[in-house]
């Protein structure tokens, strides 16, 4: 009598599935290692040729394509990303082999090339954001209440509750920090039904920080502009109004958010 038992059909499939997963993991690791090796080879080849030479330029072009292909370069869907990215490629070309604007050239023994580039890219994005913020501050004009309109209750409320000589820049800093950090998680908690990724924090970031229109935001998230308009007015605006009141700006116009 044969005591050896054959594995059941389910066990065969389990073994096959395990082997497939193992092969998949090994394949992904091999692909990553292969991509990194390709990048290192392109760095070496580029640095063999003089600055400004056609040959170095060709290898730099190939290197940039491989970096993008690796998927490890920082990426975000913001209006200024392409501008910051182009500045990053210029930084790469100037400091890959020789330190032209950096303290030292890229050293592959210290880090991967995306680890070297990502902090620079994020700083350029921050520069773009600050520049946009300064432009927005220059464009903000507080409404002037004339004496013959002081009988209007709305204007009286405005003059009574608005801080005397408000520091617009300071207020904007507080507002933008509140939107970015969402300390009480109240902005994230208000979202389109069934779509938590479309929430008040994301919507206000796009409106106040990046100046996008509702149509642009709707296209990005694949929803109707009317859906975002309802979220903005029914959920986000009351939160903004409450924040403004807490800061002493009860009827302060929120930049980037249209009045009802």
Describe what you observe in this structure.
This protein is mostly helical and 260 residues long. The protein has two domains: 112 residues, no CATH class; 105 residues, no CATH class. It is 63% helix and 3% strand. The protein has ten helices and two strands. Strands 1-2 form a two-stranded antiparallel sheet. Strand 1 and strand 2 form a beta hairpin. Helix 1 runs antiparallel to helix 2, helix 8 packs across helix 10 and helix 9 packs across helix 10. The longest helix has 39 residues. The protein is elongated. The protein starts with 8 loop residues before the first helix and ends in a 14-residue tail after the last helix. The C terminus is likely disordered.
Characteristics of this structure?
single chain, 260 residues, mainly alpha, 2 domains, two-stranded antiparallel ribbon, 63% helix
> What would you report as the Rg, rounded to the nearest angstrom?
27 Å
Strand order of the largest sheet: 1-2
Characterize the main sheet: 2 strands, antiparallel
How far the N terminus sits from the C terminus, by CA atoms, comes to: 87 Å
Overall domain count: 2
């Amino acid at each position: 009598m044969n005591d050896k038992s054959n594995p059941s059909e389910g066990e065969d499939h389990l073994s096959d599935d395990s082997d497939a997963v193992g092969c998949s993991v090994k394949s992904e690791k091999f692909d990553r290692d292969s991509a990194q090796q390709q990048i290192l080879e392109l760095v070496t080849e580029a640095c063999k040729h003089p600055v400004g030479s056609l040959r170095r330029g060709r290898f730099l072009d190939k290197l940039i394509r491989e970096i993008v292909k690796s998927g490890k370069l920082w990426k975000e869907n913001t209006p200024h990303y392409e501008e910051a990215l182009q500045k990053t490629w210029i930084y790469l070309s100037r400091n890959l082999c020789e330190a032209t604007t950096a303290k030292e050239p890229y050293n592959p023994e210290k880090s991967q090339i995306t680890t070297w580039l990502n902090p620079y890219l994020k700083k350029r994005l921050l520069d773009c954001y600050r520049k946009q913020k300064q432009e927005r501050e220059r464009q903000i004009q507080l409404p002037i209440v004339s004496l013959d309109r002081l009988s209007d209750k709305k204007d009286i409320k405005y003059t009574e509750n608005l801080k005397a000589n408000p520091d617009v820049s300071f207020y904007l800093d507080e507002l933008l920090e509140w939107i970015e950090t969402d300390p009480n998680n109240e902005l994230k908690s208000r979202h389109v039904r069934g779509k938590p990724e479309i929430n008040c924090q994301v919507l206000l970031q796009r409106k106040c920080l990046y100046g996008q229109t509702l149509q642009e935001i709707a296209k990005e998230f694949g929803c109707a502009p009317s859906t975002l308009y309802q979220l903005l007015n029914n959920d986000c605006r009351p939160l903004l109004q409450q924040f403004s009141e807490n800061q002493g700006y009860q009827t302060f116009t929120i930049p980037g958010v249209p009045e009802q």
